Amino acid sequence: MTLRRKCTTAATSLKVVGSASLVYDNADDPHELAPLMPSSNLVGERGHVLVTSRNMAWSASAMTLDVDVFTRAESVELLLKRRPATTPDDARRLAAELGDLPLALEQAASWLLTMLSSVDEYLVDLKEHARELLGEGQPRQYRGTVLTVVSMALAAVREQNPAAAQLIEVLSFLSPDPIPMRLLWEGRRAGLDEPLRTSLPAVTEGSANYRLVTRRFGTDHVLTAEAAMTCANAMRAAGDATQAYALASQGHATFRAVFGERHPVTLCAAVNLGVILRARNFDREARELGAATLEAMGEALPPTHPYLLSARSAQAINLVRSHRLEQAQVLSEAILADSRRLRGPGHPYTLYCAVNAAVDLIEVGEEVRGRELLDEAAAALESMFGADHPEVDAARGQRRIECDIETVGLT
To answer: Which residue in 72, 91, 160, 345 is deepest, having the highest Cβ count within 10 Å?
Structure first.
């Protein structure tokens, strides 16, 4: 579904719900957004539209509210909350130097927590970096202040972990949306310089990120649950289903507690948990969870939603594990057709579906058609990921591929 279509669907939904808020974050040109706005008689009566923008042209067509920097009291409150060891006097000095800018204050608090430095040391470093930036002609207003704070952090990262600094530089060219781990896996073949080339496979495993997020937010935070599920998927793919199950169970429990049993993100986590249950040969539990999840997803999501394809793929593999090969083959072929239509024929998950459909064809006796489809899908996956990718190995070995779901960004 295109972005325009998603926005139009959201705007239309205001007609049928009792009350809702529609948020367009970081919008630019009012004229570009105009076709995606709900009709004026719905706004206020059945919901609200909130637009965040740096473009002052919005003041001509909507009520505007200037969002200023923090008050000094708010700045001090944030710093003391994020780093309780900070004294009120130090918090006031830091807030004054950073101009009470919320983003700069948050980054400064993170620096003090991570680097274990004092406020005095931080302010010395801040002034030194500010002089360097001013010497390069950088502005010393909002952007200049934040840039100074960010440049300090990047300098420390370059010194302590050059591979991480390289990764940050690469990711800075991407949009601010969540970045799939699979994209990083594909990046191993992009001609990267050392040391990032060697370090990138470890990044895609997700274990380091999980440990970092757990230290920062605790075990029952949504971001920790997202990191746990990403790490669990990678561990399962690497063959460690036992530890993967522990992490996936933790993530699923957190999503369920925060969002409820039938929320889409909880259901996506349930799909992943079912994949891991099969990897541990808990077939009955996987079947029961898969059936309940597919039913709930069918009620929570539109029939064309790609996450439903993953849940249906899980159902097909459950049928195989129950020795109902003919039913599995019919279902996997339908899933492949739907994935080609919804995701496109070259999408990685469409190729996974092609592998599964091919294996099912071979196992019900349609050897020629199945072998042709399998060879085609395996070649496409190898071209995309390289010969050493686990999904390529599965395709070459005539094994079905699980279609788990990355929960990063779903919350």
So the answer is: 91
The pTM of this model reads 0.59
Q: Are residues 329 and 216 in the same domain?
A: yes
Give CA–CA dist 48/46, Å, rounded. 7
C-alpha distance across the termini of the chain, in Å: 19
Provide CB contacts within 8 A for 66, sequence distance 6+. none
User: How far, in Å, CA of 161 to CA of 179, rounded?
Assistant: 21
pLDDT in tens, 12-61: 555 544 556 778 887 888 888 877 777 654 445 556 788 888 788 887 77
Q: For residue 99, with 0-12 CB atoms within 10 Å meaning exposed, 13-18 middle and 19 or more buried, which class applies?
A: middle
Contact present, 293 and 254 (Cβ < 8 Å): no
Q: Total domain count for the chain? A: 3
Residue at a domain's end among 128, 160, 192 = 160
175-184, 188-197, 381-390, 391-400: least confident range = 175-184
**Helix H or strand E encompassing 50:** strand 47-53
Specify if 189 maps to a domain.
no
Q: What is the pLDDT of residues 188-247, one digit of tens each?
A: 666 677 887 777 766 666 677 788 788 878 888 888 898 898 888 888 877 888 989 999
d(CA 268, CA 109): 34
Cβ(269)–Cβ(252) below 8 Å: yes
C-alpha–C-alpha distance, residues 353 and 373, integer Å: 11
* Contact present, 24 and 33 (Cβ < 8 Å): yes
Separation between Cα atoms, residue 161 and residue 369, nearest integer Å: 50
Residue 305 counted as domain residue: yes
Nearest 5°: the CA angle 236, 238, 241 is 35
